[in-house]
Structures are given as C-alpha cells and as structure tokens.
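Q: I'm writing up a methods section and want to include an example of the input and output format. Could you take the sequence below and give the corresponding predicted structure tokens, formatted cleanly so I can copy it straight into the document?
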Amino acid sequence: MRQLDSANGPATRRQPSAQTILNGEVHNWYRLRLGYSDHLVADLLDKFGLRAGDSVLDPFCGSGTSLVECMKKGIDSVGIDANPSSCFAATVKTNWQLQPTTLLSLLDDIERAFNRCLRSSTLCTDPTFLYLKETGMLERGWISHSPLLQSLAIKRAISDLHTSSSYKNALFLALIAEVVDGASNVKFGPELYCGPQTPSLAPRAPPSRLKPKMEQQKVVVFLREPKWGAGQSKRCSPRVLLCTTTT
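A: Here is the clean output for your methods example:
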C-alpha cells in the first residue's frame, strides 16, 4: 500500500509487521496469533531462490504458514511441530484436494442435524466438556455453558456425517476456529485473557457461523489455476509430522 504525502511527494512503502497476513486465503482459515506471516515466508523463499523441485524443512511449523507458501510455489516441504493441534491445522490446510461445493453441502447436513444433537443428553459426558469442567476452565468463564453445548452439538453433527475423514477434519478445523474467535470468551491482547461472558451464539444459527470459514476454502479452486501458481502445487508434496518425546 502506498500513501501520498503532499509535502514530500510519494511516501515510502509501509512494511507490514511480521505477523500481518496479506494474502489470507487458506492462512486465515486457522492461524496462530503470533505465527509468522505469509509475506515474510514468501519473501524468504524468494531471497533464498527456492523454486519447484527444492525442499524446505520447517521444524517449528505451527499451523503451516511456510508449508502453504511452499505449495504455492511447487516446493516440497516437511513441517514438524510438538503441538498436536498445530499439526492438525497444518495437515488440513495443506490438503487442497477438497471440493468447496462438497464442504458447503456437508454444512447443510450439519445444520439439519444440529437441533437433534443439541437435545442429546450425552453432551455433558463428551470428553471436551469433562476436560473443561475438571480443569476449572468452564467455571472460570473461558467459555460459557450455552456456547459450549452448541459447539459440542456441532462437533457431534460433524462426527455423524457420512463422508471421509479429510472432509470431517476440514469441518472440525472450521469449528475450532469459530470456538476461538466467536463462541469462547478467549481474547487476545499483549497476553491471553478471559473476556466478558458470551451467553449464546444466537441470533444466528450456530452452524451457519461456519459458512464464512467454509467459503474460504473456495480459494482452493483458484490456487489450482496456473495464474496462482497452483499448477506447481500439484507437483509438490507437503508432509506434517508430530514431534514426540520420550522420558
């Protein structure tokens, strides 16, 4: 972005921060708040002259920013992380074989099943509910009771879908992103903190809140086009590995 300064003529280009995402497709579907940005990774790939046929190892890959940027350029990549949730996000974000129309159709199935799942008497025995209750996070207000049950109902509806694990995982990742960004009371500032209580996900039907995140997957169609460099992405092979330690 260029800004004009009437006194000094054209201003110099303002450099975005290392965390600012400029090209949000795929990246913004789920990202770590303090992760490196797409433009920083892309600039480094260009600086080192990496191109299709080369390989990149990211031993702290987080949610997969470097892997996605490598895919755009047709560069093979391996990402490693010790956080299972980061590995899960990176794996989903580097699967570009999903069809956006199928994802949106599955979302309709989730919406139809939502009320049935919400009425289930077993939601309070879900491992996620039990964990939040036993650790005191529910009592301390990191997520309110009603949004939690609604989120668990969506989780149940996704689990019950008759589709492949790849599509379910994409929907689970969208749900995780929605819980962090909307359903929970988690807030981000200089430090992580608990914000005001969220009584419900209303007035919008909770499943419909996932639609914008699903629609972001439509960018996958464009990334397959040669003008986006996606033709090269078909010839590269990203891999995500979970780092485990033994004592």
